[in-house]
Design brief:
With about 200 residues, the protein is an alpha/beta fold. It is about 40% helix and about 15% strand. Strand 5, helix 5 and strand 6 form a beta-alpha-beta unit. The longest helix has 15 residues. The protein is globular and about 50 Å long.
Length: about 200
Amino acid sequence: MRNYQIDGVNWLRFLESRGFCGILADEMGLGKTVQILALIASMDLDEEKVLIICPTSLIYNWKNEVKKFLPESSIQLYHGIDRAGDRVDSNIVISTYGTLLSDAMELSEAKFSMVVADEASYFKNDLTKTFKALESIDSKIKIALSGTPIENDISDLWSLMNIVNPNYLGSKENFKDYYIQEKSNFRHRVSPFILRR
């Protein structure tokens, strides 16, 4: 791993040690996937399970990267019509936003230790079913990944922050009343939980 990638993993571990989660928003090509897999490698996968949610177009990319870097782990693609009746019981479960919408209850019952939500633009609107389904998955750690700038629309950023650190920014109503008028203070408050390079 490159030094900045090691820094990213250490940043995620530091947040976790303080009871927080983060948004890894490195530009495309800087290895967000590798950083997440290094974080997973530090977990006890005999005791803990990880759920990776991504767009359908990326599901096999994630599978191949997991097999390459974590060959000893058991991987389950929870996706497609063949999943009917499947138990969600592998070390690392990879699914899609579409499957999350239809199977949120099944996924929430699996009791994941960590949820990784790739392509954060899929849940940047808190009024969507995707946001609500992701919010319903109970997990000690939730990490959002984004390859695009996320600080331009602070309403969208409230949604992302409410997934990774629920209630940290308060209710959306209070947020609108205060933070939209105090943008500099808002950025100061959220910057420790966003890493973009």
